Amino acid sequence: MNANMSRQSPAEGEESAQLFARTARDLPTGRHQFHKERLMAQIHAARQEESKAAAAPGRTRRAWPRLPRPAVALPALAAALAGVVVAVVSTSGGGGVEDGGVATGPALTTTLGAATTKGVPQLLDQISLAAASVTHPAVGPGQYVYIESKAADTFLKTVGDKTTLAGHALHTRQVWNSADGTKGWLIDPAVNDSPEGETLSLPDELGNTPKAHLGAPSYDYLTKLPTDPDQLLAKIYKETEGQGNTPDQQAFTTIGDLLTESYPPAELYSALFRTAAKIPGVVVVDDAVDAVGRHGVAVARLDETSGQREEWIFDSRTHVFLGERSVQVERLSGTDGLIKPGTVTYTNAILKRAIVDGIKQTPSQSG
User: Fold this and answer.
1) Is residue 36 scored above 50 in pLDDT?
2) Distance CA 7, CA 306 (A)
3) 229-239 and 266-276 are packed helices; what angle lies between their axes, rounded to 10 degrees?
4) How open is the CA angle 193-35-149, to the nearest 5 degrees?
5) 310, 300 Cβ separation under 8 angstroms
6) Could you tell me what percentage of the chain is helix, strand and coil, using 3-state DSSP and rounding each to the nearest 5?
7) Handedness of CA 38, 188, 366, 354 (dihedral sign)
């Protein structure tokens, strides 16, 4: 980390914190370090552009980096930010707290479900078979993958010198992405300043057109992945080397990211579950609840470094994927001790996943 970054003035630190807080909620779990380094480098460039913008009143607001999915593991994030920035949230005059258009309140909590390794292969095999039986049309030229979900999260809030836990209220998230990943749109009040959302189209504000990869896949990229579980898992381990707290946890997280906010082709979608069955440490949780209150059975894995358990939640009868959540299951020391067992650090529920003919078009409009 650049030494100048660690010696920011209070004003610069607050500006950096607000920028990070806004973008971090859109980070996929396990990619915090990569995006933290990218973001901190961009903060410097952003300040330079903002200085220029002050002299040009007619300029429109810049789009921020494309960060596909909002999942933040708080202990990992806190460790990544140690000595860099502290999230700052200001209270509003109405008694509530607003951040990016989403009201905040108490931390999210849940009852911890019992976990067991018994029956993991059988359950994932049933889920894989159920996934293979569902109609899964391909994305055609000019079409977009549309995903609508509900999400909420818990975060560390610092006001003055006091740090507490707070939660963003459940809110709707809508995202559109073209098959090649170069065009898209995001509407998420936890991320967007405008209720109309903002573009995800490339190139980004720095003129870059990133290449699709496992951490930020396009539909076209997913069509080229192997569907043999052994080959797929080997590729995941290789491409995510050095990411996350352990290789096994990062592999599990990577598959979870693909399940949540991408549109894997039919054969790959079924193969993801057979691949997950090969990751050591995967367990079954007898009862888990998604963001909208739907109960189901979860396929999960405990990150022993952060003490969080990542849970993929499925309908107990149909084995349809409902959503995911990250739950603190082990008590931590220090500031992270605020995050007690039973704290839900992130939760979502997938409501619609469809192919539409235009950006910002919903399935009902595509008729």
Assistant:
1) no
2) 27
3) 80
4) 50
5) yes
6) 30, 25, 40
7) positive
* Long-range interactions of 226-235: CB distance < 8 A, separation 24+: 227/267, 227/268, 227/270, 227/271, 228/271, 229/271, 229/274, 229/275, 229/277, 229/278, 230/278, 232/268, 232/271, 232/272, 232/275, 233/275, 233/278, 233/279
Query: Beta strands 308-314 and 144-159: pairing type?
Result: unpaired
Cα–Cα distance measured from residue 167 to residue 218, given in angstroms and rounded to the nearest whole number: 31
| Residue 70: closest CA among 161, 159, 239, 192 | 192
Q: How far is CA 21 from CA 15, 49, 142, 180, in A?
A: 10, 20, 34, 28
CA dihedral (275, 264, 25, 82) positive or negative: positive
How big is the chain, counted in residues?
367
* CA atoms of 159 and 72, how far apart (whole Å): 20
5: Cβ contacts below 8 Å, ≥ 6 apart: 40, 43, 44, 84
Question: Nearest CA to 32 among 334, 247, 250, 233?
Answer: 250
Exposure class string for 288-306: b at 16+ Cβ within 10 A, else e: bbbbbeeebbbbbbbbeeb
Contacts of 122 (CB under 8 A, 6+ apart): none
Residue 119 structure tokens: 């029956």
| Among the ranges given (95-99, 151-155, 342-346, 356-360), the one the predictor scored with the smallest mean pLDDT | 95-99
pLDDT in tens, 83-111: 333 333 322 333 334 455 687 888 999 99
Q: What does the radius of gyration of the chain's CA atoms come to, in whole angstroms?
A: 20
Question: How many C-alpha atoms does 20 have within 13 Å on its Cβ side?
Answer: 29
| Residue matched to tokens 């005059």 | 93
CA distances from 128 to 15, 131, 212, 267 (A): 46, 5, 25, 10
